[in-house]
Amino acid sequence: MPYTLLLLETGSLPIEIMAMERVVAYMFKVKKSPSHRLPRIAWEASKKIQKTHKSKILCSGWMQDMEKWFRRWDATHLLHDASLDSSVNEAFLQRQCIMRWDKCGGSRFTHYTTHVAPNYKSIFFAERGNRTHRYMLEPIPLSAIRTIASMRLSSHALRCETGRWGTSDESGRLCTLCPKQVRESEYHTLIQCSAFDHIRPCFPHLFDRVQSLHEFISQPQCALSIATFISKVLEHRESLLTFTRIT
C-alpha cells in the first residue's frame, strides 16, 4: 500500500514531517560547517561513495538509510542539495505523494486514488492533534486493530484488490458469492453481499442506518464489534470459496 496512507492511518504523518524537517535542517547545518569537521567529512565522503559504489562500508549506514527513507517520497534531492529552499511540510509531502502516484500509473494508482485515498482528505488537513483514528485509541486487542486497518487500507484478499493484479480486466474483480455481478469491494462485502446476510443480524447496532464504508468502520465505541464482524465475514467468505474450489 502507499506509504503515505499507512502514515495517515496510524496518525504518524506529523512525526514523519517533523523528522524530515530536522534531517533537512541538519544536512543544511552540515553543509555550512567547516571542512575539517567530522560530520562534513562524512557527508562529503558519502556523496562521493554513492557515485562510485566501491565501498560497501561507506555505502551503508545513516546516510544511506536517510536516502532510502527520502526515496519513498521521491525527495532524495533534499539530502544531496540541502539549501534554504529545502522546506519540508505537509504541502510539500502531498505534492511529492501525488507525483509519486502519477509515476506509478496503472491500476494501482487508480485503485488507491479512487477507492482508498478519498477517506483521508480530511485527515491530511486536520489539526495535528486530531489525526489518530478512534479505533486505534480504543482498548481493543492488536489483532482487532489490524483487522480494521486492513479493511480501511485495502490490504486484504477481496477481489477488488486481488483481481487487479497484473490485469485491467474488470471481470476479475466481481463478486462470485452473490448474483449481483458487482465489484467485490469492501462496501459490498460488508454491507450488501447476500452471502453474509445471516451474519449481519448478530450485530444490529452496526446497521442502524445506511452509511458509507468510511462511516461504518469509523463508528465510535464499536471497534471491537466491527473487527469481530469483519473477521466472521472474511472467515465465512474463505469457507465458501474453499467449498467452491473443492466442488
Characterization of the model:
- With 247 residues, the chain is an all-alpha fold.
- It folds into two domains: 1-132, no CATH class; 134-246, no CATH class.
- It has helices at 3-10, 13-32, 38-52, 62-71, 77-80, 90-104, 106-116, 121-124, 134-137, 142-152, 159-162, 186-192, 213-217, 223-246.
- 17% of the residues are buried.
- The model has no long low-confidence stretch (mean pLDDT 78).
Record the SSE blueprint.
Layout: H1 3-10, H2 13-32, H3 38-52, H4 62-71, H5 77-80, H6 90-104, H7 106-116, H8 121-124, H9 134-137, H10 142-152, H11 159-162, H12 186-192, H13 213-217, H14 223-246
Proportion of residues in helical segments: 55-70%
What value does the Rg take, in angstroms? 23 Å
Whole-number count of domains? 2
Contiguous runs where pLDDT drops below 50 for at least 5 residues? none
- Based on DSSP secondary structure assignment, what is the total number of beta strands? 0
Strand count, sense and closure of the main sheet? Answer: none
N/C terminus separation:
34 Å
- Helix-strand pattern, N to C? HHHHHHHHHHHHHH
* Arithmetic mean pLDDT: 78
Kindly estimate the percentage of residues that lie in beta strands according to DSSP: under 5%
Helix run count: 14
The coarse silhouette is elongated
Kindly name the structural category: mainly alpha
Please summarize what this structure is.
The chain has 247 residues and is an all-alpha fold.
